[in-house]
Amino acid sequence: MTQAIDGTYRTHTSDSLIRFVIRFYEGKKDLSELPTAYYLLGRVQKDLGDNEKSVSSFLKALDLAKEDGDYKLQYLSASQLGNIFESTGFINEAFRSYQQALHFAEQGKDSVNMAYANIYLGRVYGLLKVWDQAIVVFQRSISIAEHVSNTLALQLGLNELADTYIHIQKYQDAFSCLQKILYLKEKSTVNSKAVTYLHIADLFRLMGNYDSAYVSLNKALMADNQYTRRTVYQHFCYLFEEQGDYKKAVEYNKRYWACNDSIQNAESDIILDIETKYLREKLLAEKQQQELKQSKLIFWGSSLLFVAIIIILLVYMDKKRTTIRLFEQLHKIRFQMAENKRIIASYQEQMDSLSLRQSNYDDLQQKKALLEQEVSNLVQRNEKLNNQKLQILIRLNQKDEEIKQYEEIIKQRENTPDIFARIKRTLTLEEKEWPELIARTDALHRQFTERLRKAFPQLTDIDLRLCCLLRLGYGRKEQIDLLKVTDDNLDKRRQRLKRRLDPDKKWGKGELEQFLQSF
């Protein structure tokens, strides 16, 4: 189940299941699955924010994977270590981890991961301001990505190289990188190309090549997206203002505000109808896609839950068999003790008989001494058997407790539904269920709330709850029910959220939802 959550990029909320799996494999001495289990434990602990424990788990997975010769898992573990060190400011440790990741990718002859490992190293060189070496590794990454025709890694490498060139003011080289990205987007939409043209125009402005910046902005202006066109008009205003041509700057500033007003207050009923239909179709498609995702998540979650229950039942049956064996041993010990008592009684009778006989006194005394010794030995053996019986009874009590725990786990697994299914069924959300919904939102949308907190630290927990509902596509009525507020209170919360996101911006209808969907 943990591996399935990791594969769907959801945030892990508990490490209890993966720890149970690790104990199971360690008990069976199954070393083939332990490296992956420790790697998944590290991912869970990283999602839970426990970097110290996640580093320990990744190092354990790395050591076990080395023994098993699994270069892919060694690469993943080293990359995760590098990411943790980089995000916490331990740059030198991050550098060493990324070097290890590159080594493992090379050993496994994994060209795609070699390309990404070089990109990670280049970023660290950039943080250390070792620009020459950063350029070398970025170029190496680009060469590998081109060789294996991996467009995503190629575009990422070119973007990182362009940023590095801009830092050291090698604008022409940065322009070449952006031109290559534009070529890779040749078959992309006009709107996708417009973003690259905007970056190129901004680079020309830094170079002082205002004519070329003007041309690139005109190409970006070909986009049919009103938001992109508004941004283009704003860049035109900055461009002419920097040149001292305030007349044109004012003209494009007016166009910017006209475009902004057009977005906020559409005067044409036809345009309004088209936008309404577009938004309706878009929301319908997103809703269908969300329902499909939820159905898949419920299916896989149920399947994995069933597998987990089967595993628990198998362990439960194993504990039962162990308990039965202990009862059999206890029965044998009790039988042996009864037999020993019978023998002791027989010996005692012989001793009494010998004590009454006067003839052959010396022989009888010797036999009596031997019998007394045997009685003493049997008493000691009985004491040992009694101790064993007590230990077995203690173990039986422990097994009973373990069986009760497993039975409780089975009941919890059978009675715990999915958070989205509960919302869909009850249309309400308790206070204690909000952390689970936020965690699931982060898992589905690449740490959505963590990125929001970093970008907008002024946001409150109430703001983040509203952001989650908007990102998940819940409608106004569902927001009121889940937040347990009135219609007016919801409007006030939305206004406060807009001011905290951008106090100077005039938010138009639908802009808040679009901003959160694209964040």
UniProtKB/TrEMBL annotation:
The lineage of its organism: Bacteria, Pseudomonadati, Bacteroidota, Bacteroidia, Bacteroidales. Signal peptide: none annotated. It is found in: Cytoplasm. Residues 354-416 form a coiled coil. TPR repeats lie at residues 35-68. It comes from Parabacteroides faecalis. Belongs to the Rap family. This is MalT-like TPR region domain-containing protein. Pfam families: TPR_8. The chain crosses the membrane at residues 297-317. Keywords: Coiled coil, Cytoplasm, Membrane, Repeat, TPR repeat, Transmembrane, Transmembrane helix.
